[in-house]
Amino acid sequence: MLHLAFVFVLAQTQMQLDESADARARTAISRMDTAYRHAREVIGNDPRLARTQRLWLTMRDATCGYERALVGDGSMLPMIDAQCASALAADRASYLRRVADRSRPRRALEAVRTATDARLRHVYGAIASRLDPSERASLLRSEIAWLRYRDAACALEGGACLTTMERERTKSLEDSWLGDPVW
Description:
The chain is mainly alpha-helical.
């Protein structure tokens, strides 16, 4: 994809066109850098994000190198190079914003799930600590069966399934306890 823009403005010299294209490229790259930093804040230090950024940089350099080869060594080369970098950086910034926007609900859901999971573990541990070995073994078998069921059901359902099922399991364990609450 050649990012060549033909500008027919009589008053502009090639130097002015180069400077204008370069300014647009710097702006696009700055916006892409901002989108990348924001995605890292939302997603965290996921190595896949850094890897894709490195791969994108390699792709950008190869793509703009291809476009440079099409143009040759003419006076338009700096403008063509800047236009290529600008267009690709704008596309990458848009992609990074979409990734961050999709990750935000997932991160919020994970925070809720972490708290729900902690509550379930707390209730389970409190109950297990008060059982004799035979009762504890029975509770463990029940928990293993529930975990298998939960994993299969949530693999099918997805979304907030884990949080919902962990809340239900916590309530079930609390309701099954005969005696004063220990949690």
